[in-house]
Amino acid sequence: MPQTTTNFAPARDPVSLDGRTLEVLYPNDRYQISILLECSGGQLLRTAAGLSSLLEQPIEIHDVRGNREGKKGKKGGLRAQHIACLTTLAKWSCSNTGHLRNESTQVSFLPRKRKASQVSYRYWTERDVPGNPSPKRTATIEIGGVGSIMLLLQAVLPYILYNGPKSGEDPTPLHLTVMGGTHVSKAPTLDYFSQVFVPTLKNLGYPEITVREIKKGWGTGPTIPGEIEVVIPSIPAGTTIPGFTMQEPGEIVGYDVTFVVPEDARRSFRETLNVWFEDRAQGVDMNIVKDEDSGHGTRFYLLMVAKTRNGYRIARDWIWDRKKRDVHQVAHDMTRKVWGWVQEEIEHGGCVDHYLQDQLVIYQVLAEGQSLVDGGALGEGSLHTQTVSESKGASSFSAYRGNRRVRPVVMYA
């Protein structure tokens, strides 16, 4: 893919980031963030690019995903989903990019200082909707293949939310169509996104996001790209969301279960789940919210969402990645495994599972004032997010915009 070239100077000097150690550091008086993401270089890339585009801080990342094995023994590098994230953010935020090509191990993202008139709306086309006098703002992103749609949304969603209309501008939400993978390994699924992430953002005070599945995109069996439409309202310009606290989950009051499996396995999953919950979750309702045919004999997906008394959602899921066996055995194995993972998350005592915790980091940065997300007692090997801090008993996360300190964030008490 050709590099984007322009003749503008970046807003500030670029900050160098190490894609192997996963440390993000902006050590200057005007803007400072120090994060350690123990999950993956891709998570760092998405978080860093999202913040860079919003706060106009140029970044350069070397050894991108350097701890990940690529094809033919090569280390990490950019993939289609990462390129789509950066290309989209660069277009919307009037940014320059460098080394933006497949398997590149370094990349630069260089926002420029934008004038008030240089807003993303000029890239979000308007079209008339029959019967609706208001125009509909639309944008389309095609990742290519089955690159994860949800990982792309992790990068672009904060930018959309925080690029709202100014006084006198049309507040019409953005109808974003994305083509790629909805159910692929090592990424949140569409079901997790719509049932866990989106309700959590709404509870934190963000505008309600609606999600419509047009077609599933599977990374198992014959790989086929999918398509979704996400309707995203923005926060009015000059405003933000107050700092939030996620503590004291309360007891589990119910479970929502989703499974998308081959047609000949659906009955086995229903029966297995009913028996399992009757034996292990007496007095707690189990609701099957989705029971669908996956369309292929190798595609099995199961999601369990535990709902707490205080409105939190703790979830785990599994896209089957083993050889197919008897469907009854697959149903039992998946139910046992996903149930066990959810119980481990609950036993940690937090308000979120560790995958959701990773995704909330950028929203903690952007909220006004101090925020707290109680992730509970962290077990060894969990893919949790930590900030680098000297503070006692807590990890602090601060950001600056211009010469003004924007907001401190505390992620663990």
From TrEMBL:
It holds the Pfam family RTC. Residues 40-388 form the RNA 3'-terminal phosphate cyclase domain. InterPro entries: RNA3'_phos_cyclase_dom, RNA3'_phos_cyclase_dom_sf, RNA3'_term_phos_cyc, RNA3'P_cycl/enolpyr_Trfase_a/b, RPTC_insert. It comes from Orbilia oligospora. Transmembrane segments: none annotated. GO terms for cellular component: nucleus. GO terms for molecular function: RNA-3'-phosphate cyclase activity. GO terms for biological process: RNA processing. This is RNA 3'-terminal phosphate cyclase domain-containing protein.
